[in-house]
Design goal:
By secondary structure, the protein is mainly beta. The chain has one helix and nine strands. The chain has one domain. About 10% of the residues lie in helices and about 30% in strands. It is globular.
Length: about 100
């Protein structure tokens, strides 16, 4: 995985669009199951992002486990060069998913 962009507005792992979860799990519907809501919600995330230095932002996670029907899914692992996760109505979803 070369690049991961996460635009969720309330996740413990997200900081300035970078995910520091280490392992991300995406279910068969393309929903990110690794999302953990912050105790202070979106307001806390805003403050964390203001305090964060760009030098300490982590790169893409080591592994993205994926169960979705997608051209990038090989043996339940994502092999895309880059993916984007984004807020939807009730969850965070992989918007880079391409059905076979």
């Amino acid at each position: 995985m070369l690049q991961l962009k996460c635009t969720t507005s309330n996740c413990q792992h997200n900081l300035k669009g970078h995910c520091n979860a280490g392992i991300i799990s995406v279910n068969d519907k393309g929903i990110c199951e690794s999302k953990m809501k912050r105790a202070g919600g979106m307001l806390e995330q805003t403050f964390k992002e203001l305090e964060a230095s760009d030098e300490f932002l982590s790169d893409a996670p080591n592994l993205i486990q994926c169960k979705a029907d997608c051209v990038f899914n090989k043996d339940n692992k994502c092999h895309a060069d880059s993916i984007m996760l984004s807020d939807k109505m009730l969850n965070v979803k992989c918007v880079s998913r391409m059905k076979k």
